[in-house]
Amino acid sequence: MISRIGAPRPPSIHRSPFTIDDSPVQGDGNFFLASPWGSPYKHTPIFMPDTNPILRIGLPSGSLQEATLSLFAKAGFHINNSSRSYKPSVDDPELVVRLLRAQEMSRYVEHGFLDCGLTGADWIAENQSDVETLCELTFSKTSAQPTRWVLAVPENSPIQTVKDLQGKVIATEAVGMTRKFLEKHGVTAEVEFSWGATEVKVPDLVDAIVDVTETGSSLRANKLRILETLMTSSPRFIANKQALLDPWKRAKIDRIVLLLKGAHAARSKVGLKMNIPENKLKALIEALPALRNPTVAHLATPEWVAVETIIDEKIVREIIPQLKTLGAEGIIEYPLNKVVY
User: Fold this and answer.
1) pTM surpassing 0.85?
2) Which domain holds residue 247?
3) Distance CA 339, CA 52 (A)
């Protein structure tokens, strides 16, 4: 077990969810992990590890949760969150997983309450977190595309440029990002924090919004038009800089990153294998450049070879009929969990 020593817990502050196991804090219970929104957050926790090493990893809850858990499953880490708890179980005894809002993740990683985690580049920038970014994993709630933070106004608004926002009111969850954007354009406006459902606040409550979108469909449904894109963002795997100095944690994190990158690379790929007469192999490869650098092996049947390769899933429906025309037989398409380059 790992104990944490912090400041005395005032009556108004709840016990933190960041105990490492499910047992209560030992002693009189008068300890807490301070909120990131108040000054107590500056206190540095003191960890007293026992003999079994543990890596504390944070994963995003909310819109990215399902896609993230699916990616980890392909990477070989099966995380069970059937109870809808922020403390899901995982089939790796060396991991402790916590589900947190992506907005908060980089803060907890920076200050050492987590060793590593997955969050958006937007929230790392918004929080100005001093963390190590180890890899980019481009996916979102509904697609494999990055998300965009955009400035939007009602379709019939007279606001046509950023300059027209002078003296106006803007609602957003990314207050810091929005203020920097306005400052860059020499515009002074009131930027207020939005707790959610930001797109419904215009035009009755605010003049414009800065919100995140994947496809823009929600903005269009609320009759909004995009003026500018402030930032393009995608998930990043980040680590606490002190944790990376620990040889065991560094090695464990590197293994996780390798497997995640392999699982991510396999998302749009499939494996393809077939048999073909050896005298037709050259013509097949020349005709189908997508089959670059395939693996070729001789079969027990004389003058036949087996061909195996990895290709983009989106072109399989075009490739297979051509393979058949060129003399391939026994064509098999199969899914992939990881592609490690």
Assistant:
1) no
2) 3-143+235-265
3) 31
